[in-house]
Q: What sequence folds into this?
């Protein structure tokens, strides 16, 4: 059986992986390749699935844990098995890992049945949030691991920082991973004709992770009704000390909006989802009080 080429996308929460993924899908679609997408989400609800161009590939999901942790091994292996045995076969697969994943050796999974001899990871693109990297690098080992294991480090959001800071950031990246290629971008756009190489093989230097990453948990919120965006914003601000990331869709009565919390900054934009009756929000952070947050979220409903 011919090995399936795989592209791995890593990077911390909010670094721009999904935007980068959509740009990669455009490139592969224009190249006429059939694509399988394996999207790894830490929460029970996969928000990223609704943010990618599903017309450009077939989407598979692994939720409730990192694909690089033994806690999701069975689900991960089964999903990859389904991808490799799919008929008709895919030309390439893309794995987007959760943002808090330590990039560990998945070679153990690939060297035993049923995946033995079926998969060849070609490249590991690591997205780096230029505006927030310094805030999480020293406190979250996963960030260091993601950079160290990358074959291509993509420094994203360069429009939000100074040229001098970018030079310092790139020096830090090269100290961690002198063998990685390094490319700058502002909105996840790179020249894939130059940087995408499906001829090589990516290998890792780390050992398999055996514990969930950094005692981080997720809270998945879902509720019907119309929501007050400002109330939801205040809810997130109250979690600021513990919150690493929040994202989801809110039904405000004037159509759904996409809401995202990155680096203690809240971003919102109109969503293509029009009037989805169920609002969904996933929070990721330290020691989140799930029951209290759920009660506060339900109190943000202004009309049934």
A:
């Amino acid at each position: 059986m011919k090995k399936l080429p795989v592209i791995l996308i890593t990077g911390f929460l909010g670094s721009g992986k999904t935007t980068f993924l959509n740009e990669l899908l455009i490139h592969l679609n224009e190249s006429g390749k059939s694509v399988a997408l394996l999207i790894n989400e830490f929460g029970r609800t996969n928000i990223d699935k609704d943010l990618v161009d599903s017309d450009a590939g077939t989407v598979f999901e692994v939720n409730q844990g990192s694909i690089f942790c033994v806690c999701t091994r069975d689900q991960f292996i089964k999903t990859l098995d389904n991808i490799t045995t799919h008929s008709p076969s895919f030309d390439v697969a893309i794995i987007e890992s959760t943002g808090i994943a330590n990039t560990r050796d998945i070679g153990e999974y690939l060297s035993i049945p049923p995946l033995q001899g079926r998969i060849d990871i070609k490249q590991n693109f690591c997205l780096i949030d230029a505006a927030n990297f310094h805030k999480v690098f020293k406190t979250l080992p996963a960030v260091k691991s993601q950079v160290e294991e990358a074959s291509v480090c993509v420094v994203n959001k360069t429009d939000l920082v100074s040229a001098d800071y970018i030079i310092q950031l790139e020096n830090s990246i090269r100290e961690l991973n002198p063998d990685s290629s390094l490319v700058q971008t502002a909105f996840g756009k790179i020249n894939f004709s130059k940087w995408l190489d499906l001829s090589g093989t990516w290998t890792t230097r780390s050992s398999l992770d055996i514990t969930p990453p950094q005692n981080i948990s997720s809270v998945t919120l879902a509720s019907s009704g119309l929501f007050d965006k400002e109330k939801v914003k205040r809810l997130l601000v109250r979690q600021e000390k513990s919150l690493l990331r929040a994202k989801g869709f809110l039904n405000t009565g004037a159509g759904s909006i996409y809401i995202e919390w990155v680096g203690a900054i809240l971003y919102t934009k109109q969503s293509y989802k029009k009037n989805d009756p169920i609002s969904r929000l996933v929070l990721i952070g330290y020691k989140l009080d799930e029951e209290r947050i759920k009660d506060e979220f339900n109190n943000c409903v202004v009309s049934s």
